[in-house]
Amino acid sequence: MGGLHEQQRNRRKYFVKINWENIQSAYNDQYALSAQTKNNEVYDYASILQYHLTAFTSNGKNTMTIPDQDLEYLISNFKSGFSFYDMAEVNQVYSCPSASCTVSCQNEGFRMQAVDKTTCECQCPSGLKGTTCEELDTDADCGKIINLSNGGSEEIKMTSYTQGKTCTWLVKGESDSIIKATVTSVDLPFSSQNDCYHWLEFRDYLIGDEGKELCGQSTTTKTYTQANIGKVSPFMIRFNSQKTQTPGTGFTVKVEAVKSGCISSPCKTGSLCTEGSGDGSYTCSCQNGLSGKNCDEFRAPSYNLCDHEDDFGTCLFDRDPSSDIGWNFNTRLCDWRGCGSGVLTRGTGYQFLTLTPYYDGVPWNYGSKAAIKTSAQLTAVDRCLSFDYSLGNYEQGSFLTEINVYVEGTGKTKTNVKNLKTTTDYTWKTETVSISAVDNLVVMIYTDLYRSHVIKTFQNIS
């Protein structure tokens, strides 16, 4: 269907970490980030395109890890077809709903239209139904749509139930809410192998995916906290007692909406955001020489290394969105005449930053520009910029692909401080640039592209 693997999408850093040291080197390219993914849907662990966590392992250890290990079941469960969000993604990319299909789907539902364009409807996550996915798919005597303000809570209680039930609760908060569900008591039957006969299901990641199941007997509290996926979404709880089994005494769950400090993504330069006490406060974990409340300051003395093994990670530099053409990542690049004429890799075999439209199938024009630039506030002191680079050898005629370093700041107009345009012939070279102190300094590394086959790469920017 034309999709890349989930772990290669360009917003993966908040959802998965690549353990390059555990990957068979021949398969490193399967983990290189692609800057060209569309990201119409949130990162989906249940996607048919998500590799298993030990795929292509060289030593039996995980080649990927995720922040919430309790969600690993979404990756490890057997997959025989598209996930709900795979279907939504494919449906949008191939423009299956035409302009005439205008129904507005709610609660993570998406528009679908028949090939003959005669019908237009919403595809709803399981547990929801209705023309716009606004109704619960639930038994008449249980389930509810619960709307909470920050600080508000409600109790879901079933102290007796019958076999054969399916119940759904959909919990919604405010635009800056995170939903929590705390189980204070549970008594639901299970087998000697700890398989649930009757169970609660908590969809605390994406409501279109399967949730975490709970059964057994306990009065010890257990809390399910909604994942911060970068957008507001509902929280779903389902109860299933369809299997023929003597019922337990039921369960009690408290749901509450707490004010999130992290949902607006205040922490910059790839820094981790940790929620406060539910009052909208947060803490950013600054790394790699960065500091400040939001990790958006680069004071002196400080050192920042961008080795790109974690994409842009906590790198001081990031893509400039005004670029004509996007950067990408690769693990191995060959000379335009073939790999026998030249191959470029890192010593580790891990990924590096590239501008290679010929390899990546990226549209470009003569003179197309790509740039990365500093994304933090820099203290006004003399600084040193160092980077490893490589320029391919397909530079012919009067036009030469170039690397240019620019600086600007208060009282200083955009100034070129370094120009590079000589091929390195598939080898790495190190360049060092001295930068004088200036307030509100911004450093930009520009490229001007004049050959589609030219390989332009960076690693170890500091």
TrEMBL record:
It comes from the Eukaryota. It is an enzyme of class 3 (hydrolase). Binds 1 zinc ion per subunit. InterPro entries: CUB_dom (IPR000859), EGF (IPR000742), MetalloPept_cat_dom_sf (IPR024079), Peptidase_M12A (IPR001506), Sperma_CUB_dom_sf (IPR035914). The keyword Chloroplast does not apply. This is Metalloendopeptidase. Keywords: Disulfide bond, EGF-like domain, Hydrolase, Metal-binding, Metalloprotease, Protease, Zinc. Disulfide bonds join C267-C284, C286-C295. One of its GO terms (molecular function) is metalloendopeptidase activity. Its cofactor is Zn(2+). The lineage of its organism: Eukaryota, Metazoa, Spiralia, Lophotrochozoa, Mollusca. The keyword Cytoplasm does not apply. Its EC number is 3.4.24.-. GO terms for biological process: proteolysis.
